[in-house]
Amino acid sequence: MAASPLLTPAPPAGSSLRPAEYAEICRHLGREPTPVELGMYEVMWSEHCAYKHSRAVLRRLPTSGPRVLRGPGHNAGAVAVGGGWAAVFKMESHNHPSAVDPLHGAATGVGGIVRDVLAMGARPIALLDSLRFGPLDLPGVRRLVRGVISGIASYGNSIGVPTVGGELACAPCYTRTPLVNVACLGVVREDRIATARAAGPGSAVVYLGARTGRDGMHGAAFASAELAGRPADRAAVQMGDPFTGKLLIEATLEILATGAVVALQDMGAAGLTGAMSEMAARGGVGMDVDVALVPRREAGMSPAEVLLSESQERMLLVVQAGREDEVLRIGRRFGLEAVVIGRVTAEPRLVVREGPEVVVSLDPRHLTSAPEYAPEAREPVLSDEVRRLEGTRLAAVAPEEALFRLLGSPGIASKRWVYRQYDHMVQTNTVVPPGADAALLRLKEVPPKGVALTVDGNGRWCALDPYVGSLRVVCEAAQNLACLGAVPVAATDCLNFGNPERPEVFWTFRRAVEGISRACEALGIPVISGNVSFYNEEGGQAIFPTPTVAMLGLVEDTARHATPGWKREGDLVVLLGTGCPQLDGSEYLAVVHGQVAGRLREPDLEAVGRTIRCVREAVARGLLASAHDCGDGGLAVALAECCIAGRRGAALTLRTGDGARADEILFGEDVGRIVVSLSPGALPDLMGIARGLGVGVEVVGLTGGGRLVVGTGGPTPPWIDVAVEDLARAWEGGWS
Amino acid sequence: MEVGVVVFPGSNCDRDTYHVLREVLGYRAHYVWHEERSLDGLDAVVLPGGFSYGDYLRAGAIAAVSPVVRALRPFVDRGGAVLGVCNGFQVLLEAGLLPGAMLPNLGGEFRCEFVHVRVERVDTPFTCLLPPGAVLRLPIAHAEGRYYADAATRARLARHRQVVFRYCDPSGRVTEAAVPNGALDAIAGVASPDGAVVGLMPHPERASEEILGSTDGRRIFESLASWVRSRTAGAKGAVR
Fold first, then answer.
1. Which pLDDT value is given to residue A733?
2. Which CATH architecture has domain A66-367?
3. Where are the beta strands (DSSP E) in chain B?
């Protein structure tokens, strides 16, 4: 005998909902959902929208601090920068769309994150991007790289938001599943920060922006599964229109200035459904809208298509009753669609009509309360070969040759060819352009203050040890800001992983979040926003676990900052901090020896914190001519970069212990080591700061001349003795 | 001096230009919406950079037929000065207020970087304070900056000394390597025969403050102020 459908309801064939999820929906509704409602649940309960597998873990992140004005849960985080102004900051991934359609996938990634910042009422003032691709010599990879970079450039340049920094690395695991993470910074007066909490029964629900089309259907669901190379995936990628995006920015800011707006949100993931249900749920209210009023790009769209479309450049506004015309007039002056499509209701119910017919009646709170999962976690077993690095077995490579190979490798080589395709100067705030440890922007609103921005990630480290790798990534970002002279005040992250339903992936994810949490706590940096991107795998091959961290720093006086390049002849070169460089997991090991292996030592976070303070104070007091942290490629690469940026050489003598390996000293990696240069007269003051903080100071040589010479002193010939112009040529030509 | 800064839908250097004119130099700057038909009361108008109307057709092509651009010709006839920067230059070309056309950069990519330009003509409202041959360090940011003109136009450009800026190396030498976009004869900016309308690809508003790495762009705006002052003084003299 067949069971009653209500007792054991099963999701219709092809539904992305799990049987238990479907049963829960039926239980809540007391009936089966209509096809339209089912579609809404499918996107709202997708991993992309609901963070089903990650929510519990993400609660570990430190999110509060004295400067934090808005944390996770909002469209973007916000921190106070002083003078009554706030910085709004968030990063998001657009990996899946970029894999299928690099140009539009990356472009719409920019558009989406910009509108999240805009939804906070902030004017977007800067973009950063963190990119991962396969090795350049594999077929198709260069096309993908070019497409993604053109996509970011086409959107960012056109809307007039400068792309001021980023990072780019290549490894085989990203060949089919590239990563495109984009961060956006905005500024807004603290008392004008907007909310996404609908309120006030009778308030108008206003549709603003581009018309709705059939593009981006089920984009959120598509991003919640592994890529399968289906032709239908193409339809899940949205098409961006930066011109409309720019108009939407200006119109929204002008509309917000009227004070008539109660709440607003981008129609991003899950489109109109997402914006309506999230805004209503936050406010504990309902909405009654008519989809027939939604402006459309094509005829014959069904209510489900209108509700689920992820067409770009659309915002949903809740506007005070009686002030609709004011708002609509501004929108139309910018040539945008601006229509009242419904009203806020007191009862928390989302009612969608198509003309007279009710097609949806759901509780927005339930729609935004997907179940939370605690997936099985299992530590991956790394082979002994990967675990144990036996340095003695490494082939002998001359240090100079290794240095040249590192400088020419894609991760380290100059990215000028990339960032000169980005307008990184528009809005005239860019004081330190791309190419340094971090970018520096002045804040015209609160002179002479400025903000520093960086984004960092290292999948290789995290593949070997997601916890220590994540600790290092956070330290590295904070160091980059400190080298510029900034106090790190907030972080945002993109957590890029494989399929979380695989226990090894989930364990790795959890450890990475624990690492980010631990490091951010130790350094006092709240994580104010972020995003998780799972299912970055194809054919069972997952990417390296790749958490990327974008960080925001504050500079009190923009004129007081440091950059990596040597500035004068005869300055002292000083090594600050006491890292413990190791070859394990290093760029050197990967590039020169083709190995990803070893065990990462856990950094002393407290010591790193003191080194960061030391550098920052020295910069703020104007003691340093240059500052640059030892990152990928270790000390030798850092020194070479200081030479290349300063177009002058240096002669350095390194202290070595007994039995120390040249390659470990030169190319070993760790956090907490910073190369600075300064006039000899400034040394006592630097020593004073360092002594007070307990930070190691080692004078290693002098700037000057046209060669980089690095040795250990004594009668043995130097390890490295090369012309700076040869270093520059290798570094500049790495991508050609 | 009253300067209008035109705002087309898609302009994105309007606020930067306004900031320099108003906050840095203290001039009276006003935004002028693209639907404006009258430019009365202004001494000069700046068409800023950006992507007017999205530039999906051809850079500047749609802006060229907007009401405000139609108002430029009578404005110039009455003695007004017009500066087009980047997309603004492209608009002036498309509108026929300046000769020539823009092609996509050689190499096809957007280029954002500092370049050097040599001042080739100093009797214009925007170069009158500069010595002939002066070298300015200014940023470019464009994908369509490869200036082109046919032989007849080139002859006219030469006859009327209409080339105002040429790309050069830091020492002022015009070399092939110094041209970032493949522009014909290294042309970075041109003027109308009388010099009242000037267009250039580099962005002077991005090089008007020490903190941004160059103040060479200020000389262009300061020239304008000086030109307006002397013209006003001259006009008053004539009335007397």
1. 92
2. Alpha-Beta Complex (3.90)
3. 2-7, 28-33, 44-47, 81-85, 101-103, 111-119, 135-142, 146-148, 163-168, 187-191, 197-200
